[in-house]
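Intended use. Records like the one below are meant for learning the mapping from a protein sequence to its folded structure. Do not use them to infer anything beyond what is encoded.
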Amino acid sequence: MTKWTPQTTLIVLGVTALGLWYFKGLPGKAANAVNPVNPDNIFAGGVNNVGKAISMDEGWSLGGWLYKTFNDVPTPIR
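Structure written out for the chain above:
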């Protein structure tokens, strides 16, 4: 069995600190990807891409569609 020495403690603390420093930004990026108020989240991006493909309108977004559906917005003539 290996003895636990002060040198072992420093090595473990160093490796832990290095790991925390390396992975510090990942939880924030993951949380931001599913944040419902972030317009660039993965769900909004997916819905908007499907809507653009179906409507053949590059400016289509779910928010814009909802606004036009529930408000009286005239459709521009093209």
